[in-house]
Design goal:
The complex is a heterodimer. Chain A is an all-alpha fold. Chain A has ten helices and no strands. In chain B, strand 7, helix 6 and strand 8 form a beta-alpha-beta unit. Helix content of chain B is 35%, strand content 24%. Classes of the chains: A mainly alpha, B alpha/beta. Chains A and B meet through helix 6, helix 7 and helix 10 of A and helix 2, strand 6, helix 3 and helix 5 of B. Bound molecules: adenosine-5'-triphosphate (ATP) and magnesium ion (MG). The site of adenosine-5'-triphosphate (ATP) has 11 residues of chain B, from strand 2 and helix 1.
């Protein structure tokens, strides 16, 4: 048994790999931003006095966390189609990934909110700040700061999980790999390259989050304890 | 600083009742604080001092009785909380500065967000109130870079920046060692001298004796004895006698 690897045959398709990697990163970026907002709102909603809002948020979070991502993607894809709505594969993918990561973000942010000492909130109430102002000025950043590592891991995980979007023929990295390997009959080499590219994308994202952390948490920079 | 007796008190509690579940914590508490007056709430642990203080700023809802603070009917469900809390400043034992904001940002936040003060005006204000508590040089520091006493003084400055009509203090020096306690008490003394109306829960009997116009001694959810600071030296009830006698009367 001998292993014969022919990377050049596969690597000559590098523009395709690159385009796929770029699309994966784009998918991840859009759904991270949208998912972060959606998840934060859902986390706030779960703490709402209105039990209808709190209940709806809880159902959303639990439904998503207990179904496979691929099924969610198909639900959005075929759901929109059966409503007669036509969207690009990219848009559908971003929507599904946003809904997915939003639920996980909500859980993480809820833990962050709960970690804010009650006294902080009372002090803010004592200063006549409104509920919304308290969330915005007092709770949000310290909560994000507390769960930042968990949050960023979740977003990197989302980028990796976006590979299942190949199933609805979004032209992301895994989809590109699938057709290159069927073209070249060099499956092993193809997926080695794809794996390396995913690692690079992960590192790029982590570097991005590290930089964002510097901007979001100036106190940590000042005190020499960046996240 | 005392106003003629005809003027409305800044704070008045009448027959206030408050329970936590089956536990009756305030059992018909009444007292009033006139403009410019300093009232010290004293009593054993669990006697209801914090609860009484928190009712004034409506951090607790009362079950019965009447509370009027700067004209706001605090006991009513329709009280305008934001208006009430602009008139009342409250400082807690645990400082509760916002850790992610600089001292300046801690101070300017509420005046800007609540009163709509322009940023430049708010910064001037921050400088002014920090000077009042002797912390001008800490304007750009973060709370965790300050000592406990400095954090507590910054918290007082943050409250002052809202220009409250009355200040509430709940054992603001209990977390501090004696040296830091002294610097915070000095700030409060200065406030009293400037005519600020204050209600303070304190275990510093010597301080209460020196600064308070009136003492309210609470015992089992009731105002057990009340009067001028001299009641600490010549108490009339056995409970207060015992309370001041058991080493609580520090100088
Ligand atoms: N949120 C709450 N829920 C239930 N019980 C409470 C609550 N807050 C206070 N209590 C109880 O009410 C009683 C009075 O508490 P309070 O904090 O007013 O006492 P205090 O006089 O301030 O005591 P200390 O000197 O220890 O601060 C205590 O028995 C306390 O356990
Ligand atoms: Mg107390």
């Amino acid at each position: 048994m001998s292993l014969q690897l022919d990377f050049p045959a596969v690597l000559e398709r590098w523009p395709h790999f690159l385009a796929g990697a770029a699309l994966t990163l784009e998918l991840a970026a859009f759904s991270t931003v949208c998912g972060a907002v959606l998840g934060t709102l859902a986390a706030v909603g779960r703490g709402a006095h209105n039990s209808l809002i709190a209940g709806a948020c809880k159902i959303y979070v639990e439904a998503i966390r207990n179904t496979p991502l691929l099924v969610q993607i198909f639900l959005v894809y075929f759901g929109l189609a059966s409503l007669g709505l036509k969207f690009s594969a990219f848009t559908v993918a971003v929507a599904a990934l946003t809904i997915n990561v939003g639920a996980y973000t909500a859980e993480i942010m809820r833990a962050g909110f709960e970690a804010i000492p009650r006294g902080q909130i009372e002090a803010a109430e004592g200063l006549a700040l409104s509920r919304l102002q308290i969330y915005w000025h007092i709770i949000l950043l310290p909560a994000i700061e507390r769960v930042y590592p968990a949050l960023t891991s979740q977003f990197v995980l989302l980028m990796l999980a976006s590979s299942v979007c190949s199933q609805i023929s979004a032209e992301e990295l895994t989809a590109v790999a699938n057709y290159i390997q069927s073209d070249t009959y060099r499956a092993f080499e193809t997926y080695i390259i794809v794996a390396v590219l995913y690692i690079i994308l992960s590192l790029v994202m982590r570097a991005g989050f590290w930089g964002l952390g510097l901007v979001l948490f100036p106190r940590r920079r000042r005190l020499g304890t960046p996240l | 600083m005392q106003q003629p007796p005809s003027s409305e008190p800044i704070v008045s509690l009448r027959d206030v009742q408050k329970s936590f579940g089956p536990l009756l914590v305030l059992d018909g508490v009444s007292f009033a604080v006139e403009r410019g007056e300093v009232l010290a709430l004293i009593g054993r642990s669990g006697s209801g001092k914090s609860t009484a203080l928190r009712c004034i700023d409506r951090f607790e809802k009362v079950d019965g009785g009447e509370i009027v603070v700067c004209g706001h009917r605090v006991d009513r469900p329709d009280v305008d909380l934001r208006a009430l809390r602009q008139d009342v400043g409250i400082v807690f034992q645990s400082y509760n500065l916002f850790p992610h904001l600089t001292i300046e940002q801690n101070i300017t936040l509420a005046p800007c967000a609540v009163k709509g003060l322009a940023a430049s005006q708010a910064k001037d204000l921050a400088r002014k109130v920090l000077a009042q508590v002797g912390l001008e040089e800490k304007l750009h520091a973060y709370p965790e870079q300050l000592s406990g006493g400095q954090q507590q003084r910054a918290a007082i400055a943050r409250s002052l920046a809202m220009q409250p009509k009355v200040m509430l203090f709940d054992e603001v020096t209990s977390a501090l060692d004696p040296e830091l306690t002294a610097e915070v008490l000095k700030v409060i003394e200065q406030l009293a001298a400037d005519g600020m109306t204050m209600v303070m829960v304190t275990h510093e009997m010597g301080f209460a004796k020196g600064i308070a116009d009136r003492i309210v001694f609470m015992h089992r959810g009731k105002v057990h004895e009340t009067g001028p600071a001299s009641i600490l030296t010549t108490p009339t009830t056995p409970e207060l006698t015992q309370f001041v006698g058991t080493g609580n009367l520090k100088s």
